[in-house]
Write a structure and sequence with these properties.
Layout (H helix, E strand, L loop, with lengths): L15 H6 L6 E13 L4 E2 L14 E7 L11 E9 L5 E7 L6 E7 L1 E10 L9 E9 L2 E9 L10 E3 L4 E13 L6 E9 L6 E9 L1 E14 L4 E8 L4 E13 L3
Antiparallel strand pairs: 1-16, 2-15, 3-6, 3-8, 4-5, 4-7, 8-9, 10-15, 11-14, 11-16, 12-13, 12-15
Length: 259
């Protein structure tokens, strides 16, 4: 087989975002995050599959990893191992693989200040998780921890959490959003909000959009919105009336700050 090289290296044009995705631009990383919330009411909630407003960890903590199903274990028919990505006490990116033990909690090797993404990496004969897999703290009852900071939703093999925190030493540039509302009521609206919180500050609204009934909206941001290191970023939603099934996606690039 021949050797393949970037078009850019041959003097031709190639989109900048593709160069970043291919790892050809030092200090640049792409980000694509997405989440769902199947029952948003009239009060603002974070777009994540657990529902309600997301509560952040106050300090880096060892996570308990468990499943609502005993079949998610090292020899089970469901999920066997998962990958966890997050930030440590200094907001540096960390990750690890965890071998599951069903409803019995397994401690992570790392201590996490933020849980940013989780997904199933290996599974038994079913090729999917048998239950919902949690990362949390406190007492674990039937595989569900008292406090939940991340989860892999049943059927997805992937966390569905429309929030992220900018790692130390980077600036994030938000390039766009894609928002979907499943509100079936007549003359109803779903409101989406982009919130940010810098270290020591409060959550502040950065952008908002309104979708009528059941519909979607693509929101390109040019120029992009910028977020400094250690900033918490999340998408929230609420409905004008009744319950709404919503999803939110956002994408961007985070770039290493100059030394």
């Amino acid at each position: 087989m021949g050797t393949y090289s970037s078009a850019t290296r041959q003097g031709a044009y190639e989109p900048f975002e593709l160069q970043v995705a291919r790892g050809q631009v030092d200090g640049h990383n792409t980000l694509y995050k997405f989440g769902v919330n199947t029952d948003v009411g009239t009060n603002s909630e974070t777009v994540w599959s657990q529902g309600g407003l997301y509560v952040y960890l106050a300090s880096a903590t060892v996570m308990k990893i468990s499943s609502s199903s005993a079949d998610d274990s090292s020899a089970g028919t469901g999920a066997r191992t998962i990958a966890i990505f997050g930030l440590d006490a200094n907001y540096n990116e960390i990750s690890e693989s965890v071998l599951l033990n069903g409803q019995t909690a397994v401690n992570t090797g790392n201590s996490y200040l933020r849980i940013l993404r989780m997904f199933v990496t290996t599974a038994g004969s079913s090729e999917t998780a048998a239950g919902t897999i949690y990362a949390g703290t406190g007492s674990v009852t039937s595989g569900v921890p008292a406090a939940i900071y991340g989860l892999i939703t049943l059927g997805a093999n992937q966390s569905l959490m429309a929030f992220w925190t900018v790692p130390a030493g980077y600036t994030f540039y938000l390039l766009g959003l894609f928002l979907t509302s499943g509100n079936t009521g007549a003359n109803t609206f779903t409101f989406f909000q982009v919130f940010q919180r810098q270290v020591g500050g409060v959550f502040r609204l950065q952008s908002s959009a309104r979708i009528s009934a059941s519909g979607n909206s693509q929101v390109p941001l040019n120029p992009p919105l910028s977020f400094v290191e250690k900033t918490d970023l999340q998408i929230r939603a609420f409905s004008s009336s009744g319950a709404s099934n919503v999803s939110a996606e956002f994408e961007g690039i985070y770039i290493k700050n100059p030394d």
